[in-house]
Amino acid sequence: MAFDARSAITMFWMSIKLLFVVFFPSSIFAADVYEQFPDKVERSQKYVFYSHGLIVEGTNPTPVNARWGKYEFPMIKKALADADYNLIAYHRAKNTEPKAFAQKLENDVRLLIAQGVSASNISLIGFSRGGAITIEASNLLANEKVNFVLLAACGRYVGNQPSLKMYGNVLSIYETSDEVGSCQFLIDRSKQVAHFTEIAISTSKEHGAFYTPIPQWVDPVKKWLKDAK
After folding, report:
1. CATH entry 3.40.50.1820 includes domain 29-227
2. Closest Cα to residue 165, out of 141, 140, 139?
3. What are the beta bridge partners of residue 150?
4. DSSP-based three-state secondary structure for 88
5. For an engineered disulfide with 213, which of 33, 79, 138, 182 has Cβ 3.0 to 4.6 Å away?
6. Helix, strand or coil for residue 200?
7. Are strands 167-175 and 47-51 parallel, antiparallel or unpaired?
8. pTM recorded for the entire structure
C-alpha cells in the first residue's frame, strides 16, 4: 500500500487531540465569550465582564461617531477573549439606566461567588459610560478581592458623585489626548482599594483610542487580567 502523507498527518493530529482530551479535561479551559450570563459556571475558572461605551447602547454593535469613528464592539470582544478566562460582554439596550445595570453586574458577580467562583477570579472592565457603570458596581459590591479595569472612565459623572468609591484591585488606563483623564482622584477617596495601577497611553485618538482594540490598551489589560490573583 502506498504511503499517504496526508492521512498520516491527519492521524497524528487526531492522536494529539485525543491526548489533550484525556489528560486535560475541557472543564479546565476557558476562552468562551458570552453575550448573556452563562448557563453553566465552572468554579475553577476566571470570569471577565466587559462593559462598552454609551454609543453602543441600542441594536447596532458598530455605531459611528463623527469625531472618533466606528466603535468596533465585535472586534473588541474578539481581542479581549483569551484561553485564561471566560468573557461576558452584554450589549446594553438604548437608554439603559447606569445604576440599574450596575445592580445587574453586582448580582451577576454575587451569583458567580455563590456558585463557588473565587472573588479574585472575577474582573470587570468598563469603558467610558461602561466604566462609570463598573465603578457603580464596585461601590455596590464593596468587595476588596474583585478586580476592576477602568478605561477612560473617570469623567464628570464620577467626579460629581463623591459617594462613589472603588474597592479591590484596580487598573486604570486613559489617553493623554482625551478630556477624560486620570482616576487618581477616585482612588484618593477610596480607602478600600487593595492595589492601584494606572497607565497613560498617547495615541492622539482622544476618546476614540478605546473604540478599536489597539495593542496600546488591549495588551496591558490582558496581561493584568492574567496576573490578577
Report:
1. yes
2. 139
3. 126, 172
4. strand
5. 79
6. strand
7. unpaired
8. 0.86
